[in-house]
Amino acid sequence: MSEERFSVQEGEAEETLRLVAQTPPPDGLESRVHFRLNGEMRNGEMRTLPQRGIWGLWLPAHKLQFAGAAVLVVAMAASLWTVRHPKMAGPQAGSRSTPVAQPVPVPPGAGFGTAGAERHPASLTPIQVPPVPKKKPSAKRAVKAHSSTPTAQGGAVTSAKP
Amino acid sequence: MEIPATSAMEPKERSYGPGTDEGNARSAHSVEAAISALVDEYAGTLYRVAYSVLRNTADAEDAVQEAYLRVLRHRNSLDEIRDPRVWLVRIVWNVVLDRKRRAKTRPETDDIADLARMLPASGLTAEERAVSAQRHEQVLRAVQQLPEKEQRVLILSAFEELSSVEIAQVLGTTESTVRSRLFRARNLLSTLLSHSRSLR
Q1: Separation CA A37–CA A28 (nearest Å)
Q2: C-alpha span between B152 and B93 (Å, rounded)
Q3: Contacts of B186 in chain A (CB under 8 A)
Q4: What gap in Å lies between CA A56 and CA A62, rounded to an integer?
Q5: pLDDT tens digits along A30-45
Q6: Which of A68, A90, A120, B46 is paired with B20 by a 20 to 30 Å CA distance?
Q7: Smallest CA–CA separation between B105 and chain A, in Å?
Q8: Cα separation of B65 and A40, whole Å?
Q9: pLDDT at A155 over 60
Q10: Domains of chain B (ranges, CATH numbers)
């Protein structure tokens, strides 16, 4: 009983869908499609003709044309980049530079050293610079300097001995 | 199913030099003729496929035109098409699904009622016509409730000119998948219809 009802309902459903599928197309559908396609073809020709006039002389295939255009764009971008960003001589201002490792002096005859090792010939004797004696400021000199300061600035001259 | 031989689909440009102007002009002309023949032969079928999904005359016609524009874009590969009818149905089917996806927010209830009233009911009295329209509406609403895949197979199966193999080609699946989906769709539809009728 239920199977029979199912088949009846199926039949009804399929009939409905068949009726929808058999809906007749509107009059003049083909002619409108033809018209649209003709217009598109004409537009396509108009679009392609000037392009072929310029590019057709140079590269034969469309893919090569695109590849050539891409190469040109990349080259122009690279040249612009180099013009706008010239090479910097030193480190940029504000950037922290790491301390440069000083070469380690290696005594003569010490064998192999590191790559940055610095060697001096044994005959080279370093110049001995005598230490400069430091002058301690005495009380007398301090007073003299204090009294002579307004003179230097254009003030009144006090009783200072030459 | 035998592939319909279209005389305009024959590659005529092979007899001319491919690089010559005359050859190019003639091949372009033959391609135009081929597309024109495709329009004359299959525009009606494509319209019916589009209409069965979109249920709107203007939308269906737009979909057909868009499908032929896609054909125009692929005019260079027309010679490689073995079965232009299935190929075209597949194109219009994709166009229709794209459009449906884009216009998903539009309510479909009014469309169903309108469509049910518009379906042909010749030789029926006014009362019978009303009952028939009501039944059609029930069926269409039930179809609308089916899962997407089953719904698509059911819609395409209503086209007498499409075999299950061709439906599989249009949907990009295998024939066995189409058959199993169709079986499931019919069962689901029966259940939905019996449920909706028991509520009344």
Answers
A1: 14
A2: 10
A3: 10, 13
A4: 9
A5: 999 999 888 888 776 6
A6: A68
A7: 23
A8: 11
A9: no
A10: 1-106 (1.10.1740)
Burial class (CB in 10 A: 0-12, 13-18, 19+), B179: middle
Phi-psi sector, B16: left (phi>0), alpha (psi -120 to 50), beta? beta
**Which residue, chain included where needed, has tokens 């009295």?**
B125
Q: What is the pLDDT of residue B91?
A: 93
- Highest mean pLDDT pick, A95-104, A119-128, B191-200: B191-200
> Residues B168, B3: contact at Cβ < 8 Å?
no
**Dist CA A151 CA A156 (whole Å):** 6
Tell me if B13 sits within 8 A of B23, measured CB to CB: yes
The single-letter code of the amino acid at A159 is S
Contact call for A17 and B40, based on CB within 8 A: no
Q: What pTM value is reported for the model?
A: 0.58
Q: Where are the alpha helices (DSSP H) in B6-105?
A: 21-54, 57-73, 84-102
* B chain contacts of residue A33, beta-carbon cutoff 8 Å: 39, 43, 64-65, 68
